[in-house]
Amino acid sequence: MSMSPIRSMFAVAGLCVCTAAAAAQHDGHKAHAPQAATPHTAEAVPYMADTCPISGQPLGSMGAPVVREYDGREVRFCCKSCIKKFENAGKDGWKKLDAIMIEDQLPFYPVSTCLVSGEPLVEDGEDIAVDRIYNGRLVRFCCKSCVKDFLKNPEPTMMMLDAAVIAQQGKHYPLKTCVVSGEELGGMGEPYELVVGNRLVRLCCDGCEKKLLADPVKYLEPLNAAWEAQGMPAMLTKAPAIKGHEMMDSPMKDMKKKKSGHDDHADHDH
């Protein structure tokens, strides 16, 4: 099956280009001091968790979730009383939310190497990755130095991540029907494809995109179940090359490994 043009949440959110300063605010969430939410917009990065970040209760267990938007990022709460608690928690609230999203997306992460340096994310059987949530997406790095390099120009790395998701999940995509409409994929022409929460999603048409993004947890449930039943394909050892966006040279490539452990990351800040 030929691949239709892919739509990434990196693009859907209207956040393809960020200044280094703005992006840096999301790393460590230094900008998320107590603040009021802004009105919800259709362009917000959708909330990719099924629980409230404050109470931990399943969304919907106390009625319809309360939706708020912060810096272009959607957050859903079980009730109104959790909103102030979240805002007053500052960066701790965002760390808790990011931890939920990292746990959700980790099984779908497509590549075993750092997208910035090309260095492995595992050494001697130990996971050494530095995990960050960027525009609602898990991105894994070999060290904090690569996080800083990424934030200077995130777009090429996010394009590489999208390409890796497609390469890993496309050939073995486990569903033959649209997760929104239930229609057979291909029945209305080439499937419409998106990357949501590091999952490749195939829809019967672009008209289903709005419903998917309005409630991604609901519509991704059958896709998650299908992958669990089938088993995820092996992780890629290297992301597909993106023309015009070469991977940065790693300062480690010219260093000889002198000892076991993390010595060959000695110049990297983990």
Architecture overview:
The protein is of the alpha+beta class. Helices cover 30% and strands 14% of the residues. The protein contains eight helices and nine strands. The protein has helices at residues 9-12, 20-26, 81-89, 91-105, 144-152, 154-169, 209-214, 216-230, and strands at residues 6-8, 66-70, 73-77, 122-123, 126-127, 130-134, 137-141, 192-196, 199-203. It starts with 5 loop residues before the first strand and ends in a 40-residue tail after the last helix.
Radius of gyration: 19 Å
Q: Which percent range fits the helix content?
A: 25-40%
Structural class: alpha+beta
What distance separates the N and C termini? 41 Å
Domain count: 1
Share in β-strands: 5-15%
Strand order, sheet with most strands:
1-8-9
Tell me about the largest β-sheet: 3 strands, mixed
Order of helices and strands: EHHEEHHEEEEHHEEHH
What is the overall pLDDT average? 82
Low-confidence sequence ranges: 1-5, 9-35, 249-264
Topology, number of strands: 9
Discrete helix count = 8
So what's the overall shape?
A: globular
